[in-house]
Design brief:
It holds the Pfam family FERM_M. With 551 residues, the chain is α+β, with helices and mostly antiparallel strands. Helices cover 57% and strands 10% of the residues. It has helices spanning 5-16, 67-70, 74-89, 97-112, 133-138, 143-154, 162-173, 252-272, 278-376, 382-450, 473-509, 519-530; strands at residues 24-30, 33-36, 57-60, 182-187, 193-198, 202-206, 216-219, 223-229, 232-237, 245-249. It has a 7-stranded antiparallel β-sheet with strand order 7-6-5-4-10-9-8, covered by helices on one side. A 3-stranded antiparallel β-sheet has the order 2-1-3.
Length: 551
């Protein structure tokens, strides 16, 4: 009950491990007006809602000019990333369609890590809220078409850690015109309705229909005094030749909130242009060491992953080769069996042919004997002689046929013997090839055992592994050179980033539904055609020779 706002705020910061507390605050809503918890006032003395429990929102109250230079802690970057992403999706910050796709790809990288086509298959973003509804409704594109374009950019972010992807998101978002601007409805002396914008660079006056381009801007370094009396608010420029700007707000509570934001933004504006405090220097040194440690850890893990992948590829190749050798051995065995069967058949056929040849030779010899016997027989009469001569002629012809058939059978037996010899030679070669394949298989097994993962390869079980690093000068110099190299590469990439955005814009332009364009879409296109941006419509403050502002 006695706690002040600072007690509650410090408890939240300690719970989060947050040290860059000056960007944040506890917000609540009272009578449709946003208010922030005051640090030096008791919590229950504020005009907080009476219902219980009392709800506060822990949010960024002030925004950095340059997120990469000013946000030191990773938790600070993460909280800004979550808040800015929600504001873009809720359309509190206007974001053009092509930039929305790029930002969505970094949000996916931050959540899912590196793109893996085997894991991140078609439809894996179906349940994710990644684009403002205004962008989705503006084009005749299906969710699958949006996912395809987001995934194409997501695949290019490979190798970025979560904190790096979130920082890239913030670096793009901080160039959006409505980033970090708090808008308030006001009226000038003539009663004209206007909008007052308060951000890290100064105060800006907008037309109610155009929140992108301010009509007038007052950078913090050109404001001499800010004050209010009841509902009237006064801005006195440093240059006395410029008229004092006065306006009225709807409520006194709004003027108090405006002045509170002005004081905080002005304090941070002046702090940025001074040397860092000892606390900030220590935080930045710790952040650099932590970043270096994480960089070395990522490099070590990348090397281990590469070694593991190479070892797995080698193993797969050896397994594939082993399977191939097994298939070759099986085929050789089958060929050997077929050769053996063929040789047996040929041997059997050769034996039969040889027996037939012997039988024919025997018959030929018997015929010859018969012919000799007939010749030796005395023929008494001419008729017997004629008949005998005819029989002799027939016997001679039969003997000749028998001789020819015997010769043919002998040649066939020789040919079968030659075929048998060739079959046995083929069998011998098949056995030799089988022996060679068997020896290769055993050799491959020995190689696969010798090419297994080395025993000293670091384990991927990071839970039980204790990490320690000694930061030597050579390591830090090498790391600095690598970081510098990364900066150069990033500058080269950033050159074609705008080209990529323009390509995407051109690609989806044909699918745009002109009748669904909002006023902000039209204003953004006009600014883009004129070459206007957030930074060239606001006069940039200089770091030197500034007088302090009395607020």
């Amino acid at each position: 009950v006695k706690w002040k706002g600072k007690d509650l705020f410090d408890l939240v910061c300690r719970t989060l491990g947050l040290r860059e507390t000056w960007f944040f605050g506890l917000q609540y809503t009272i009578k449709d007006t946003v208010a922030w918890l005051k640090m030096d006032k008791k919590v229950l003395d504020h005009d907080v809602p009476t219902e219980e429990p009392v709800t506060f929102h822990f949010l960024a109250k002030f925004y950095p000019e340059n997120a990469e230079e000013e946000l030191v802690q990773e938790i600070t970057q993460h909280l800004f990333f979550l808040q800015v992403k929600k504001q873009i999706l809720d359309e509190k910050i206007y974001c053009p369609p092509e930039a929305s796709v790029l930002l969505a790809s970094y949000a996916v990288q931050a959540k899912y890590g590196d793109y893996d086509p085997n894991v991140h298959k078609r439809g894996f973003l179906a349940q994710e809220e990644l684009l403002p509804k205004r962008v989705i409704n503006l084009y005749q594109m299906t969710p699958e078409m949006w996912e395809e374009r987001i995934t194409a950019w997501y695949a290019e972010h490979r190798g970025r850690a979560r904190d790096e992807a979130e920082m890239e998101y913030l670096k793009i978002a901080q160039d959006l015109e409505m980033y970090g601007v708090n808008y308030f409805a006001i009226r000038n002396k003539k009663g004209t309705e206007l909008l007052l914008g308060v951000d890290a660079l100064g105060l800006h006056i907008y037309d109610p229909d155009n929140r992108l381009t301010p009509k007038i801007s007052f950078p913090w370094n050109e404001i001499r005094n800010i004050s209010y009396s009841d509902k009237e608010f006064t801005i006195k420029p440093l240059d006395k030749k410029i008229d004092v700007f006065k306006f009225n707000s709807s409520k006194l509570r709004v003027n108090k909130l405006i002045l509170q934001l002005c004081i905080g933004n002005h304090d941070l504006f002046m702090r940025r242009r001074k040397a860092d405090s000892l606390e900030v220097q220590q935080m930045k040194a710790q952040a650099r060491e932590e970043k270096a440690r994480k960089q070395m850890e990522r490099q070590r893990l990348a090397r281990e992953k590469q070694m593991r992948e190479e070892a797995e590829r080698t193993r797969d190749e050896l397994e594939r080769r082993l399977m191939q050798l097994k298939e070759e051995a099986t085929m050789a065995n089958e060929a050997l069996m077929r050769s053996e069967e063929t040789a047996d058949l040929l041997a059997e056929k050769a034996q039969i042919t040889e027996e037939e040849a012997k039988l024919l030779a025997q018959k030929a010899a018997e015929a010859e004997q018969e012919m000799q016997r007939i010749k030796a027989t005395a023929i008494r009469t001419e008729e017997e002689k004629r008949l005998m001569e005819q029989k002799v002629l027939e016997a001679e012809m039969l003997a000749l046929k028998m001789a020819e058939e015997s010769e043919r059978r002998a040649k066939e037996a020789d040919q079968l013997k030659q075929d048998l010899q060739e079959a046995r030679e083929s069998e011998r070669r098949a056995k030799q090839k089988l022996l060679e394949i068997t020896s290769k298989s055993s050799y491959t097994s020995m190689n696969s055992s010798t090419t297994a993962l080395p025993t000293d390869l670091p384990s991927f079980n990071l839970i039980s592994e204790s990490l320690s690093f000694d930061f030597k000068d050579t390591d830090m110099k090498r790391l600095s050179m690598e970081i510098e190299k990364e900066k150069v590469e990033y500058m080269e990439k950033s050159k074609h980033l705008q080209e990529q955005l323009n390509e995407l814009k051109t690609e989806i332009e044909a699918l745009k539904l002109k009748e669904r364009e909002t006023a902000l879409d039209i204003l953004h296109n006009e600014n883009a055609s004129r070459g206007n941006s957030k930074h060239n419509t606001i006069k940039k403050p200089q770091a030197q020779g500034r007088r302090p502002i009395c607020i």
